């Protein structure tokens, strides 16, 4: 069985990206993956600083790197802040990138972003994809940009728009098809 982890780059209560994360997580389960949902609030890390690395690398960095190295599929939903990657997500990736566990070389990554704007955080997703490509990750061609957030999901947390539903279908298909692990 393929293993997957899902993460959200916002730990805000009521986060729209968390709604997307939960939806894709359910879809991966339905497609047959064993999914672990990760709450980054449970993995606190200070702002990355090379001076901290020698003696103060947070335990969370090693634990998350291990989870990244072991998962066949990693789905990240993360907001766009000022056309960039959310500080939480970037800090997390930066700390993980300094571990030496092959953490970006095994999984296939799927990226999603929900924003209050109508362009669905697509600029921020490109920056997140660039950072992941830089560290050697394989990212699916389908990127899930969703917006405007306030209208995007129904009461069950499913995307309302048929076009977004099709993109979720496509991304889940790609994640299952391009990843390693069992059938
Ligand atoms: C500091 C900051 C910068 C933001 N910059 C952008 C932006 O560049 N583009 C955009 O579409 N939305 C931007 N937003 C709005 C977010 O898309 C919106 O707050 C979104 O709901 C955040 O994701 P969350 O609901 O998962 O926490 C910004 C919000 C904040 C707080």
TrEMBL record:
InterPro entries referenced in this protein's UniProt entry, alphabetically: Flavoprotein-like_sf (IPR029039), FMN_Rdtase-like_dom (IPR005025), NAD(P)H-dep_reductase (IPR050712)
One Pfam family of this chain: FMN_red
Domain NADPH-dependent FMN reductase-like: 5-143
Any one GO MF annotation of this record: FMN binding
GO cellular component, one term: cytosol
SUPFAM superfamilies: Flavoproteins
Gene3D superfamilies assigned to the protein according to its UniProt record, in alphabetical order: 3.40.50.360
Official protein name in the record: NAD(P)H-dependent FMN reductase
Lineage of the species this protein comes from: Bacteria, Pseudomonadati, Pseudomonadota, Alphaproteobacteria, Hyphomicrobiales
């Amino acid at each position: 069985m393929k293993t997957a982890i899902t993460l959200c780059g916002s730990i805000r209560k009521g986060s729209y990206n968390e709604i997307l994360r939960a939806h894709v997580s359910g879809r991966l389960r339905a497609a047959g993956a064993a999914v672990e949902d990760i709450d980054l609030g449970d993995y606190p890390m200070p702002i990355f600083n090379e001076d901290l690395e020698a003696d103060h690398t947070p335990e969370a960095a090693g634990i998350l790197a291990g989870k990244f190295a072991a998962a066949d599929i990693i789905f990240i939903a993360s907001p766009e802040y000022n056309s960039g990657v959310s500080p939480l997500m970037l800090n997390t990736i930066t700390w993980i990138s300094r571990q030496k566990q092959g953490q970006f070389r095994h999984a296939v990554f799927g990226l999603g972003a929900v924003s209050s704007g109508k362009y669905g955080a697509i600029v921020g997703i490109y920056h997140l994809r660039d950072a992941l490509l830089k560290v050697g990750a394989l990212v699916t061609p389908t990127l899930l940009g969703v917006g405007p957030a306030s209208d995007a999901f129904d009461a069950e947390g499913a995307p309302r728009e048929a076009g977004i539903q099709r993109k979720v279908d496509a991304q889940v298909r790609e994640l299952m098809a391009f990843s390693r692990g069992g059938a």
